[in-house]
Fold this sequence. Notes:
The complex is a heterodimer.
Chain A: H1 2-17, H2 19-29, H3 33-49, H4 57-90, H5 98-113, H6 120-123, H7 128-155, H8 161-179, H9 189-196, H10 205-223, H11 225-235, H12 237-242, H13 247-273, H14 285-295, H15 307-327, H16 331-348
Chain B: H1 2-9, E1 22-32, E2 35-46, E3 50-54, H2 61-68, E4 76-81, E5 84-86, H3 91-96, E6 99-102, H4 114-118, H5 133-146, H6 162-175, E7 180-184, H7 192-207, E8 211-215, H8 219-225, E9 228-233, E10 236-242, H9 248-256, E11 277-285, E12 293-298, E13 302-307, H10 313-320, E14 328-333, E15 336-338, H11 343-348, E16 351-354, H12 358-361, H13 369-374, H14 378-381, H15 389-402, H16 419-432, E17 437-441, H17 449-464, E18 468-473, H18 476-482, E19 485-490, E20 493-499, H19 505-512, H20 517-525
Parallel strand pairs in B: 3-8, 3-9, 6-7, 7-8, 13-18, 13-19, 16-17, 17-18
Antiparallel strand pairs in B: 1-2, 1-4, 4-5, 9-10, 11-12, 11-14, 14-15, 19-20
Helix pairs in contact in B: 6-7, 15-16
Amino acid sequence: MIPNKKSSLADSGQGKKTFIGWFKHKWSNDPLFSILIALIIMVILQTLTLGFDYQSFGEWFQSWSNNWINILRNNAGIGIVALGMTFVIMTGGIDLSVGSTLVITGAFAMYLLDTGAQGILGAVGITGVPAIILTIVLVLVFGYLLGALIGVSITKGMVPPFIATLGAMMIFRSVTQHFAQGYNTKVPVEFLQISSFKIGNLMIMPIIYWAIIALILYYVSKRTTFGRQIIAVGSNERAAKLSGVNINKVKLRVYALMGLLVSIAAIIQVSRIGSMDFSNAGRGMEMDAIAAAVVGGTNMLGGRGYILGTVYGMLIIAVMNNLLNLFGVPPFLREAFKGVIVIVAVLLQRKEKTA
Amino acid sequence: MEFLKLVIKNEFTLKSLGDYMKIEMKNIRKSFGNNDVLKDVTLSVQGGEICALLGENGAGKSTLMNILGGVLPTDLGTILIDEKEVKFETPADSQEAGIAFIHQELNLINDLPIYENMFLGRERKTKRGSLDLKQMYNKTAEIFDQMNVNLDPGKMVRDLDASYKQIVEICRAMMMNASIIIMDEPTTSLTDTEIERVFEMVRTLKENNVGIIFISHKLNEVKEICNKYIVLRDGNLISNGDVNNVTKKDLASYMVGFDVRTESLRRESSDEKVGKEVLRVEGLTDNRHFRDIHFTIRAGEIVGITGLLGDGRSELFQAIFGADHYNSGKILLEGQEVTIKSTSQAIKKGIAYLPRNRKENAILKDMDIIENASIVTWSMFSKRGVINTSRHQKLFEEQRDSLRIKMGEMTDSITSLSGGNQQKVVLSKWLAANPKVLILDNPTQGVDVGAKEDIYDIILKLAEENIAIVVLSSEAQEITRVCDRALVMYHGVIQGEVCDEMMNEQTIMNLATGGEIGEEKGVHQL
């Protein structure tokens, strides 16, 4: 027994000793490794394009990091949504309604906050910081409930996720556009601090939110009953049910969580710009979120997905957008590159053996 | 080559059933990396022979058949057809040479009628390019006629039972002029009557000079229908010869490498430590699958539930487990009436259910061994929703040893295990939950002989530990070997209860087909 163990240890040690051995081992065993390599390659490319320079390293670093903060901040909202989308896809579902949920929760936030005549909280006499805190809570609850509503129609109503969320996508935006037409809101300046508060001269609050949520969800997916049940449901729904997993509860919570995350993204967006274009905001957001999840190794059939992978996936798409910008690729062509990246990412991913 | 041309030309003209053909695989070797899967295996089959290919999971049967089917190339060795060497590079080569491979998972499309399935991938077209449905229909009818199959070619495949699906596949193989048919565990999901139907077909084929390679774990069937056998173990050819010269016991010991018991494990009535009543069911009805079910199960008992396909036993116990609905009736646990609306409730109340069809109902293929072994207890052991990994690992380590699970690391994929070990992992997740009632639905489905005996031992041991055990099985032999008593179901009702010397295969079969206990005695008296 013991000598056996030793020899096997020595074997695996030899395999990993050389860099190539280690690389090969990682490549074939760690599903996130190839995604990380792709990201690193793109970052190197981007760095080279920005004109890396030894002589004026300080200056170069300044512009490089500024560029990065811009990329991350611009993608924080959608990055958060993509994390929720990863969970949804892992259960074997999909959520097309995220863009519209963003708009309806954003509109709700603005109605609550408006310092003008129509502001709901202002009308009942709540202003200042309490109003902002109350708004945040109410918007998060609203987002959670909208998600739960979709979840109920999927679990109790047995509507396929694609249809349920397609319907919600149409309803939410249309309702928002109707009730908010010709409506100009004035969001209080204090609210804008949520996104624009500066830490040491850096406007990185959205990035921090994204990072914190990613960390929490990473932990949830790896260590909690809920996180593992998501995978169990997506991997084999029937087996999960017969193992005592309440699959309806898991699904309901996944869609509710998705709604909650979208409402966070809405708060970030509203507090960044101070307004929201109800007809265009969040359009195509669902596709970007799905793309990030898929590039990050999430299986569209459910059962497999990685929070960390989705962060990588989001970054790959973001850096690529940045690169296309730097290379001066015409705007209409950029979507095509995104499409190519998504397809190539799935092509490169390890295929399940069909033995 | 001339022979091949002939086959292609005659692809759809079935003049006489089966052309005589002899196939030999000589000194076949195959390895994947450092893993030698086949070491010098030789096999020969000719028309009119039924050769059993036996071996435990992982013995190399599938690899050998995949080589014959053109799916895998051989490393060394030759394949001869009628003394001429052939090379199969693709499955199509093998098919053209007259070899048909009927896989365990049937290659039929449920949503198409039989006749379209018969021509799948080689559809007949009219001159204008549309499907020539009429011709396909007639051709299928013609073949059914020749093969003595009484089936309407226009029927949807979805509406066929498993045996007829098997038969449609065989007919399709015959239509493509197969001379040798490989059947991979054709009877695993069939009931006894269905098996008989397939066997009849197999006998017809044999009479018509078709050669058959029959892969099976069921030695009864091998003895019944095969005339040759070959046993593989760890890629070696262990034994081959005439089936009439060996006993089932011999075959089993060739397969596992040591002597296997075949004797009854049934406990003497006096040995049973019959405890208090654990589960009582009164008048349970769902109006679809089962009606007016009454029974009582006590702690430490092993009760078998058997019957033919469609008897409703799985549905009944899934309803008791909360995975399905029932309309009326009562379930009492330890004397207290309970309503169980979900599987998680059932688990909390001490009911465990190991489902049939492991792959569809129990295995989480994206998860590792320890997760598959702990899913039931995740929420039970967790603190504030965080999984208690160390407790699960500790518990599973104990079970790995006591259930004798052969495995590598706990974090390996569940699919890296053999069928028997997968089943033990699934069993271990239920034992972790400490059940009072353990329902085992086809517990030995798709596991090899060695693991099967292990599972029987586990069942007996658990009964000693005062767990009430229900074994659902369609194999009467399994019921009579391990259970203390058995309930036999027929079309959704309990047709009768048997115990002691009345619990034998004949009585069970009689009840399962709708007979009464008394009737059978009458037959004996005649």
